[in-house]
Amino acid sequence: MKTFCNALFLVILSFSLVECKNESKPNVIISAKNEVRYAKGFSIQNYDGYSVVKVKNPWPRATKTYTYILKEKNGIVPDSLKQNLIIPVPIKTIVVTSTTHIPSLELLDEVNTLIGFPHCDYISSEKVRARIDTGNIKELGNNQDLNTEVLLDLQPNVIIGYGIDNKNPTLDNLQKSGLKVMLNGDWNEENALGKAEWIKFFGALYGKQKQATALFTKIEKDFFKTIRIAKMAKTTPSILAGDMFEDRWYLPRGTSWGSLLLKQANGNYLWQKTSGTGSLSLSFETVFEKAKSADVWITSGQFSSLKEMTNANPHYAEFNAFKNKNVYSFSGKKGKTGGILYYELAPNRPDLVLKDLVKILHPELLPSYKPFFFEKLK
């Protein structure tokens, strides 16, 4: 599962090796434009008959760049690239290992190519759940210990994996067995649009780069439109985020994607000046001292009612946002087996998350809009 990322910026890389159309000079060096604009963890360069996909940040502080060659039918890959993993495209079958991969398949109308997933209960998508129920998608166990026997029987065209670090012996063993594995680092992006742009990664696998770009451009356009609306707000409500887990309060750091979205929604997130991505881990007393009078509270997905919150910790009721019933959560939107939709879809749809936050903080700016993910707890 992936969590809360950093400021918008442009990534333009160049890849220099490509086959020349002149058969007598198969390895003449030229350059190709990178098709990725916001994401910093991958790039795509298209050539005649093949594409080069580079993944350079699949986990924090990764030092190796992974290069994959997507070869079209009758495409000729130059000798200088043949040491890399070569995947014939468009693919027909796929295994993915994170719920954040699911929305791209659905948006590209490629759900029927998904044949395996670890911990299927986490999936919320109704279309994917229907295929699970009919046995068309096989359960693969745990992400760090995938069922090798089932995968060898399925023989997917490609497995999309991810890692918390560079230690994933299961993926290594699958590659040694002849299966093709690509790493996906969408969760490690520090920018909301960067996360969403990974749909282009999947578009390249299916030969649908134009469709993926069009879908992303629509998300990007709506995202910036909502930012412009938020700037019209006359107030900047103060915001508390997160809640207690065991004996610590977890909330997004100041340069995480969650914190940035709150700022873009024209809110005053009380920890927005902290540095780093990921989560802060604080004591209850530290949070209470700073956020007792916060106007709005955006909780995690732990609770579905105010009563559940006070049952877990009676001191939650001492915050002004709780007293005024200005507490919001995304926990109410779940799949039929309990998977929370926000964890699956939100990284792919920052336009919807931002619009929800503007509705929460400045309801007068979006009078007819009903939040997609968030609900006020009762």
Topology (elements, then pairings):
Elements lengths: L13 E4 L11 E5 L8 E6 L2 E6 L10 E6 L13 E4 L5 E3 L5 H6 L6 E4 L8 H8 L4 E2 L1 E2 L2 E2 L1 H7 L3 E4 L7 H8 L4 E3 L8 H5 L2 H7 L3 H22 L7 E4 L1 E3 L2 E5 L4 H8 L3 E2 L9 E4 L1 H8 L4 E3 L7 H7 L7 H4 L3 E3 L11 H5 L4 H12 L13 E2 L2
Parallel strand pairs: 5-6, 7-8, 7-12, 8-9, 12-13, 14-17, 14-19, 19-20
Antiparallel strand pairs: 1-2, 3-4, 4-5, 10-11, 15-16, 16-18, 20-21
Helix pairs in contact: 6-7, 7-13
Q: What does this protein structure show overall?
A:
The chain contains 13 helices and 21 strands. With 378 residues, the protein is α/β, with parallel strands linked by helices. Strand 15 (243-245) and strand 16 form a beta hairpin. It is globular, with a radius of gyration of 22 Å. The model is unreliable at 1-30 (pLDDT under 50).
